[in-house]
Design goal:
The chain is of the alpha/beta class. The chain is built from 13 helices and ten strands. It has two domains: 3-92, Chorismate mutase (Chorismate Mutase Domain, subunit A, Up-down Bundle), CATH 1.20.59.10; 106-358, Aldolase class I (TIM Barrel, Alpha-Beta Barrel). Strands 3-4-5-6-7-8-9-10 form an eight-stranded parallel barrel, surrounded by seven helices. A two-stranded antiparallel sheet has the order 1-2. The longest helix has 38 residues, at 3-40. The chain binds phosphoenolpyruvate (PEP) and manganese (II) ion. Phosphoenolpyruvate is lined by residues 124, 150, 154, 186, 206-208, 229, 259, 291, 294.
């Protein structure tokens, strides 16, 4: 090798090492700025500051690189620092296992989400005293600890049955109390958080409201346990961000529910995203529920998918059960009748009571 080149390459190596040291030092300082910005709730991206730096860098550019090349090189450095600052942030999310490694348990009445696997069951909508009490009696006799039922229903058509409202809340509460169950019901509006909290043990935020940030914050301020459904077309990350809205208000009692996402598939009502549910178990410390009713809309798929979900380690499965689904006022085809629920339970029982089944 030509000795003059060798010598100059030695120079280049020395400068590379110096640049590396300077870049690392710069990254550490950018990280420290990022921490302060996070603490103050400021954005890491500051376009005015970037313009300012590019302005003096090009003004002081001695060449031989053109201003355009200098800008391009420094923009890459800025971008790398931003990515670093945002990655540091991720570690600080309240939902994250990196913030809290141990599983969160949410206790409601006799039920512990994050303890032994649970079933949440009950009708889609609360329709009458008789319907609610018969269902609660039937489910409680089978060891179901959490009763569901909608009093405020999010219906696709504004002309469809919208739920019984406060009268429904009252019926749900009374039925749950009579049979020693916890009661979960949906709240759709910030103005109803207070009244729903008076009757329910768990506030449900439905798929259609997962992006309703005002509602998430209000539920966060309520300090009630919250069952947060994943949005119809929400990514796993958006679902976790929605949980973060609740957690950031000081409410740590969040339960995540995967209820199927919209895909091109038409033979099921939605597509159960089991990967999303397992990611939720792995990346967050929150209890995770899989709603096989809304995920499939097909009764024959519910037991196999519940088995898959429980085997994958989720904390609860959610199903709709109605004494007479044919005359139900919503979701007729996807609610199980009592006989179907018994068959369902027989198919999943070994996964709900692993100790008893093997002992
Ligand atoms: C429900 O559980 O009653 C419901 C409407 O579910 P989702 O919000 O998941 O559609
Ligand atoms: Mn329903």
């Amino acid at each position: 090798m030509e000795p003059r080149i060798l010598e100059l390459r030695g120079e280049i190596d020395r400068i590379n090492r110096e640049l590396l040291k300077l870049l690392s030092e710069r990254a550490r300082i950018a990280g420290a700025i990022g921490d302060i910005q996070t603490e103050l709730g400021l954005s890491h991206y500051d376009p005015v500051r970037e313009e300012e730096m590019l302005a003096y860098l090009t003004a002081e550019n001695p060449g031989p690189f053109s201003d355009a090349v200098i800008k391009k090189l420094f923009k890459e450095i800025f971008k790398a620092s931003l990515v670093l600052q945002e990655r540091e942030d991720k570690r600080k999310f309240l939902y994250s296992r990196e913030t809290k490694p141990e599983d969160t348990q949410v206790r409601v009445k006799n039920a512990v989400f994050g303890g032994e696997p649970l079933i949440i069951a009950g009708p889609c909508a609360i329709e009458s005293e008789e319907q609610m009490f018969t269902t609660a009696e039937f489910l409680a006799a089978r060891g179901v600890k959490v009763l569901r039922g909608g009093a405020f229903k999010p219906r696709t058509s504004p002309y469809a049955f919208q739920g019984l409202g406060v009268e429904g809340l009252r019926l749900g509460r009374a039925a749950a109390d009579k049979y020693g169950m916890a009661f979960v019901t949906e709240v759709m509006d910030t103005r109803d958080v207070e009244v729903v909290s008076q009757y329910a043990d768990i506030l449900q935020i439905g798929a259609r409201n997962m992006h309703n940030f005002a509602l998430l914050k209000e539920a966060g301020r309520s300090h009630m346990p919250v069952l947060l459904k994943r949005g119809l077309s929400a990514t796993v990350e958006e679902w976790f961000y929605a949980a973060e809205y609740i957690l950031s208000q000081g409410n740590g009692q969040v339960i995540l529910a995967e209820r199927g996402i919209r895909t091109y598939e038409k033979w099921t009502r939605n597509t159960l995203d089991l990967s999303g549910a397992v990611l939720a178990k792995q990346l967050t410390h929150l209890p995770v529920v899989v709603d096989v009713t809304h995920a499939t809309g097909r009764i024959e798929l519910m037991a196999p998918l519940a088995r898959a979900a429980l085997a994958a380690g989720v904390d609860a499965v959610h199903v709709e059960v109605h004494p007479n689904p044919k005359v139900a006022m919503s979701d007729n085809n996807q609610q199980m009748d009592f006989e179907q629920f018994d068959a369902f339970l027989n198919q999943v029982r070994d996964l709900l009571e692993p100790a008893r089944a093997s002992g």
